[in-house]
Amino acid sequence: MALLPSFIRPTRRMTKRPARPAHRPPAGDEAVLDAPDDRLSPALVAAGRGEYAVAAGLLAETRAAADWEHRDRYARRLAGFARSRPEWYEEWRAAGPEDAGALLVGAQLAVDRAWPSPARAEVLREVSPLITAAARADDRDPVPWRIALDHARGTRAGHRYFEELWEAAVRRAPHHYGCHVAALRYLAASWHGSHRECFDFADRAAQDAPADSLVQALPARAAFGYLTDGCGATVPRARLDAAADRAMALSARLPAADPAPAEVRNKLLYLLLRLERFEDARGQLPLIGPYATSFPWDRFSEDPLGHFLRLREHLETAAPRTVLAGLLEAPPEPGGGHGGHVRAADH
Q: For residues 4 and 263, what is the distance between their CA atoms, to the nearest angstrom?
C-alpha cells in the first residue's frame, strides 16, 4: 500500500521539551474512568432520562462550529450509550430521520454492533448505506469518513478503495485525529508486523500538523502498537523516544486535568513507563489528573480503572522498575494481536 501520499509534506521539527509540573496527582479515590466533559455530561444525563434533545443540540453545535474533534468523540460516546439503550436512539431517529447528528450516531452504532461478530466483514457490508447517509447529511463533516475508514478496515477493503476514502476525509479536515488513527490502524492490519510503515505515516502526519493538534500524538500511538504487538522488526529506541517526546510536547500545550486529551495522556503514560522514563511518567500524572481512560488499560486488565490506579501508586514508589514489570505486558488477543481488535469499542 502506498503510504497515503496525499498527506506527506515537508518536515517541521520540534526540539524544545516541556518542563514537568511539580505538583502531585490527586488522591486515588478521585479517579474516574472515561469521564465526559462538561458539554457531553448533560447530554448523557438527559439520555439517561430518555431524552434525546440535548444530545441532538450538542451535535448540532459541533456541526455549526465545524468542531470535528469533539463531534467525533461525542458521536462515539452517544453511540455507546445507544448500544445499551437502543429505544432512546430509535425515538431520536424517528423524530428526526434527516437529523445529521442522529444519522451520524446511527452509523457509528451500526459499526459498533457489527464489530464483535464472527462474520464482521459480511455484517459491516450491510451497514454501508447508513454511513453514506451520514456523509450526505453534511458534506463538510469528516466524521462519517472516519467511520467509513474503520468500516473499510473491518471489511478488509483493498488499498485503492481505502486511499480514496482517505483522500476524501483529509479534504474535509486535513488534521482530523480520528481519521489519522483509522488510517494508522488500517496500515497496522494490512502490514501486520511491519511497523516501519506505521511509524513513517505517523511521523509525516505529525510533522505536517499544527503544534497543538492531536495528530502530534500519532507517533506515540504507533509506538504503542509496536510495544504491544510482539512481532516484526525491531524499532530503534531513538524512534520510540522521539514519539514520546512529541506527545509530551503536545501534552504540555493542552489543558491540564481535562477529559478531552485524557486518552492521549494515558497512552503516553504507558509509553513512558515501557521506556522506563519514570520521571517523565510522573510528570504526566498531574496533567492526567483524575481522568483515567479505558484505552490503553483495558488491554492489560478487565478492570482498567483499577489497573491505572495500581500503576499510578507503583510509579510513586522508590523502585518502579521492579514493581511495574508485571503490569505493562498485554495478554495475547484472540483476534490476532496488533491487527485483531476484537472488542466492539476497539475500532
A: 25
Largest CA distance in the chain: 58
Query: Percent of the chain having pLDDT more than 90?
Result: 78
Burial class (CB in 10 A: 0-12, 13-18, 19+), 151: buried
Angstrom distance (rounded) from CA 181 to CA 187:
10
Residues 6+ apart with CB under 8 A from 77: 36, 40, 44
Q: Quick one: which of 252, 259, 180 has its CA closest to 221?
A: 180
Q: How confident is the model at residue 15 (pLDDT cuts 50, 70, 90)?
A: very low
Whether residue 341 is predicted with pLDDT greater than 90 in this model: the reply is no
For 217-249, the pLDDT digits (tens) are 999 999 999 999 888 889 999 999 999 999 999
pLDDT, residue 28, reads: 45
Q: Mind giving me the DSSP string for 267-302? A: HHHHHHHHTT-HHHHHHHHHHHTTEE-HHHHTTT-S
Task: Report the distance separating Cα 201 and Cα 128, nearest Å.
Answer: 27
The enclosing H or E element of 33 equals strand 32-33
Grid coordinates belonging to 297: 488499560
What residue ranges do the domains of the chain occupy?
19-35+195-347, 39-190
Q: How confident is the model at residue 140 (pLDDT cuts 50, 70, 90)?
A: very high
Residues 6+ apart with CB under 8 A from 301: 307
- How much helix, strand and coil, in percent to the nearest 5, is found in the chain? 65, 0, 35
Query: Can you tell me the distance from the alpha carbon of 302 to that of 314, in angstroms, rounded to the nearest whole number?
Result: 19
How many CB atoms are closer than 10 A to CB 121? 14
